[in-house]
Amino acid sequence: RALERLENLGFLASRWEDPAVAAQEQRPLRRLYQITAAGQTAYEAAAAALDAAAARPGAKPAPKTKGLAPS
């Protein structure tokens, strides 16, 4: 699982939501994820590397990552 690997690397933190919320909405519990400072740093480094690679002459355009950037 990708999210579990990212959590093991320290890039994400997770917790289970309040069981009362899930019970009230009659659904299973959700696991909630949050990016860590290390994850933010890794994301920014990867984005910068992608931008640098795309800026090289003859490089193909980088794929768009709409919606993937952390807020």
Q: How would you characterize this protein structure?
A:
- With 71 residues, this protein is α+β, with helices and mostly antiparallel strands.
- The protein is built from three helices and two strands, in the order αβαβα.
- The chain has helices at 2-8, 19-24, 37-55, and strands at 12-16, 31-35.
- The protein has a two-stranded antiparallel sheet.
- The longest helix is centred in the middle third of the chain and has 19 residues, at 37-55.
- The mean pLDDT is 89.
Describe the strand arrangement of the main beta sheet, using strand numbers: 1-2
What is the distance, rounded to the nearest whole angstrom, between the alpha carbons of the first and last residues?
Answer: 23 Å
> Could you tell me the mean pLDDT?
89
Shape from CA axes? elongated
Kindly name the structural category.
alpha+beta
